[in-house]
Write a structure and sequence with these properties.
The structure holds two protein chains of two kinds. By secondary structure, chain A is an alpha/beta fold. In chain A, 52% of the residues lie in helices and 12% in strands. A five-stranded parallel β-sheet of chain A has the order 2-5-8-1-9, with helices on both faces. Chain A has a two-stranded antiparallel sheet with strand order 3-4. In chain A, strands 6-7 form a two-stranded antiparallel ribbon.
Chain lengths: 326, 484
């Protein structure tokens, strides 16, 4: 069934071949991610698997610090692919995301004259000779020449498309760009191609895996969402968080990991301005290990609470509710 | 399978989720890649292709439980066989019984109850929660539904009542207390410290919540068997958080609203700030343009513009916080303050029949929710009897603060204008409109009800720039967004 699916995907995208699927089965995804140190739950591994099979980008949303970016990195590591990262920010435009013409080089090229003369005569002589009625290549030839791939500066998106080795493309914090800039992404996300007016359409030779992350500071456009698979990564449940702590913090005992995970879960049930994220949990666990803590008591927790919580009001509230110290 | 999927997609659309045709096709293709017996996998595949916003997850989950519940029955049976408990056998028998037909299922259900006394059931529940044993928990849920829910076939209900009945009989609070007592007794050093106690309590609460869900799932499953997926889906369909009618929200729904309000207001603030930054340019800055042109040989290639000076309005929010409309007023205040950076000044007043300024509660507060909470306790809004009197409140506002409303102010009046047949004193609104730039009235009642009974919104409306129906967060956000 999967072979038929691949052929269909390839036909849909107008590609000769989309290559063999990266993952053999759902379980292969999960165990593979586990091997590279990313503990995925059912939904994460399921969506990664589908993204590969359907050749669709994945839009990952969720609170900060729950491993959205890390997921892309881990998938890259797992598949042995190169990670190409596009960090989004306000004001990102075509020339930073897709491609740009190398104006300086083009200018040099125009001044230098035709390619033949560069080899035989040298640049200076040709430029001088221009006035003597000796004309270089015709304007048309020149135009074709300076708008060739040689003068194209590839930016992350184009680079991911043109790459011949396997690639994972990470478009980070896509909610930071303006609504209009989002449109830049649409062609690449649905067709895996980039249209350059002077050059034509560049198609992908190998399909990259694409991950987009969003912190949900604004609603993304319907057009973008429609083209992606959607994955919401929330805070992990108790068992998974404990496992994450155990695997990412060397030298932590089982009891301490358990206690850390349980305290963090209780903290998240409080009404805080900023609930502790997974990365903060890990920081806290590391701190406790360095301090040589074996079991956490109220006083110890109070002293290190500022690693988990970043607002004074939150710290006070947590201390009062959870640790009964004010 | 494809038919089932189309039914499911139709249901999602009815629940208000925007599912496009492409997404439907994607889902159909995704299903091919998931082994059919993997129900969780199916769920995530559908979620990934059909649901594109985390706030829609709940609606999706409910619909999924309903549409794909029947299939799991066989699987549950198998699991139970593997466990090989006596209870499990019992549970399996029931499942088979309910499968045959509604009437019979009920007869068999009471039979199951006989097989297990109330004490046994409570004992098993306690044990399953203590050990966090999933199979056992499901079995207990099944037994409890058999015994207590008293389900009647063919009734067009969503199952909330059955859930309530089952849980009331199980006395989960009592169970929690018992679990805590057990934990205390089993502690190593005699007694638990406060921290340990709290952690244990949270742990058990989480387990009980899990059990509650098991019961809910069980009830849903039976209802689906009784009435079919589509009929049930209609009864359990709930509005999306943005579409909940604020005035008639239940306590649970209010909690949901409270949760979505925070991200909503943050998004709104970001959007408005951006709009402002990227909006119009100011007038041409001649001096800077000439200075700049020196680097291009005097040719003004790049004109420079002054920074725009957007006029920020001053906002007066005057909100009715009596009984029914109180939650609406709270949400509006919350939202207005969340974007207060967009206004030069926000002043807020609340009234029932007396009126009080509450601006001070919001000063220096990071989270508007805290301030809103304080208003209810501390604001002095009762004049005589604590029934809404718009006339008196407005007159009082006019007397004490009326002269501070200037041409730069916008006035928002919040309320249903149900005046308990007092005098309307609409001349105040008329005067406010003369002084202020805009006067808006936000009414949380459906438009059809305006002017019925003791509602006198019509009298005020004559003097307002606009009267807006604001029943849901979506409408509210839209209005506040346009205001700034």
């Amino acid at each position: 069934m999967s072979a038929a699916g691949d052929a269909r995907t390839a036909a849909k995208l107008g590609l000769p071949d989309v290559g063999p699927p990266r993952f053999a089965s759902l379980d292969a995804v999960r165990s593979g991610l586990g091997d590279v140190g990313y503990l995925a739950d059912d939904s994460i591994s399921g969506v990664v698997y589908l993204a590969d099979r359907l050749a669709k980008p994945v839009l990952v949303e969720g609170p900060a610090g729950t491993g959205k970016t890390q997921l892309a990195k881990s998938v890259a590591e797992l598949t042995g692919a190169r990670l190409i990262r596009l960090q989004c920010y306000e004001g990102l435009d075509e020339s930073k995301a897709l491609y740009e013409w190398n104006y300086r080089k083009q200018l040099l090229r125009i001044q230098a004259g035709g390619p033949g003369e560069i080899e035989s005569g040298g640049a200076g002589a040709t430029a001088g000779a221009g006035g003597n009625g000796h004309r270089g290549p015709s304007w048309k030839e020149l135009e074709e020449d300076i708008f060739s791939e040689e003068f194209l500066l590839t930016r992350p998106l184009l680079e991911a498309i043109r790459s011949t080795d396997p690639v994972v493309l990470l478009i980070d914090e896509v909610d930071r760009v303006e609504l209009e800039t989002e449109a830049l992404l649409l062609e690449i996300l649905s067709e895996y191609q980039v249209s350059i007016p002077e050059l034509g359409t560049v198609r992908a030779t190998r399909l990259p895996m694409v991950f987009l992350t969003s912190n949900n500071t604004r609603e993304l456009s319907e057009a973008l969402k429609r083209r992606c698979l959607y994955l919401h990564i929330d805070y992990p449940d108790l068992d998974r968080e404990r496992a994450i702590v155990r695997s990412r913090v060397p030298g932590i005992t089982e009891e301490l990991a358990d206690q850390v995970a349980r305290i963090v879960r209780s903290l998240r049930t409080l009404e805080l301005r900023k609930a502790p994220s997974v990365s903060e949990t890990l920081d806290w666990a590391r701190t406790l290990v360095i301090l040589g803590t074996e079991t956490i008591d109220a006083a110890g927790a109070r002293d290190t609470l500022h690693i988990l919580l970043k607002y004074q009001t939150d710290i006070d509230r947590a201390a009062k509710e959870l640790l009964s110290v004010s | 399978m494809l038919d089932l999927l189309s039914g499911f997609v139709t249901e999602l659309r009815k629940a208000g989720l925007p599912v496009s045709l492409t997404e439907h096709l994607d889902a159909a293709e995704a299903v091919h890649h998931i082994p059919l017996e993997d129900r969780e996998g199916l769920k995530y595949a559908l979620a990934a292709t059909l649901v594109k916003s985390s706030s829609h997850w709940h609606a999706f989950e409910t619909a999924f439980e309903v549409f794909f519940a029947v299939r799991t029955k066989g699987m549950d049976g198998l699991e139970l066989d593997a466990d090989g408990n006596e209870i499990d056998n019992d549970g399996e028998g029931d499942a088979a019984g309910t499968g045959k037909g509604g009437q019979k299922g009920r007869g068999k259900g009471s039979g199951g109850g006989e097989g297990m006394s109330a004490e046994e059931l409570a004992e098993m529940l306690f044990k399953s929660l203590m050990s966090s044993d999933h199979g056992l928990m499901n079995a207990v849920a099944r037994g409890a539904v058999d015994r207590y829910a008293g389900m009647e076939p063919g009734r067009p209900v969503g199952g909330t009542y059955y859930l309530y009945r089952t849980l009331r009989n199980l006395d989960l609070d009592g169970v929690l207390a018992k679990l805590m007592a057990q934990a205390q007794a089993g502690a190593v050093g005699g007694a638990l410290t406060d921290l340990e106690e709290r952690l244990a309590a949270d742990e058990y609460k989480a387990r009980i919540e899990k059990f509650r869900r098991a019961v809910e799932t069980e009830i849903r499953r039976r209802l689906v068997e009784d009435r079919g997926a589509e009929a049930l889906a209609r009864s359990v369909r709930k509005p999306l958080p943005e579409d909940i009618d604020v005035m008639h929200a239940t306590r649970e729904e209010l909690a949901v609203l409270q949760r979505v309000l925070q991200p909503l207001s943050r998004k709104l603030a970001v959007r408005l700030a951006r709009k402002r930054r990227h909006g119009h340019k100011g007038p041409l800055d001649f001096r800077a343009t000439v200075r700049r042109s020196l680097s291009t040989g005097g040719v003004p290639i790049e004109p420079r513009f002054r920074h725009p000076r957007p006029s920020k309005p001053e906002i007066f929010v005057i909100a009715d916080i009596s009984g029914s409309v109180a939650s609406f007023a709270r949400f509006t205040l919350h939202l207005v303050y969340a974007i207060s950076a967009q206004f030069s000044k926000v002043r807020s007043f609340v009234f029932v029949d007396g009126i009080d300024e509450v601006t001070r509660f919001f000063e220096g507060v990071v989270d508007p929710a805290d301030a809103v909470a304080r208003i209810n306790q501390e604001a002095d809004v009762i004049w005589v009897d604590g029934h809404s009197d718009y006339g008196h409140a407005l007159t009082e506002f006019h007397r004490r603060w009326g002269d501070q409303v200037t041409a730069r102010s916008s006035v928002l009046l919040l309320g249903d204008a149900r005046n308990n047949y007092h005098a309307s004193q609409s001349w105040v609104v008329e005067d406010l409109q003369r002084r202020a730039r805009h006067v808006y009235w936000l009414n949380p009642e459906p438009r059809d009800y305006w002017g019925s009974g003791d509602s006198i919104v019509g009298e005020y409306a004559a003097h307002c720039d606009e009267v807006v129906e604001c029943r849901t967060l979506r409408q509210l956000e839209h209005f506040v967004g346009n205001l700034a």
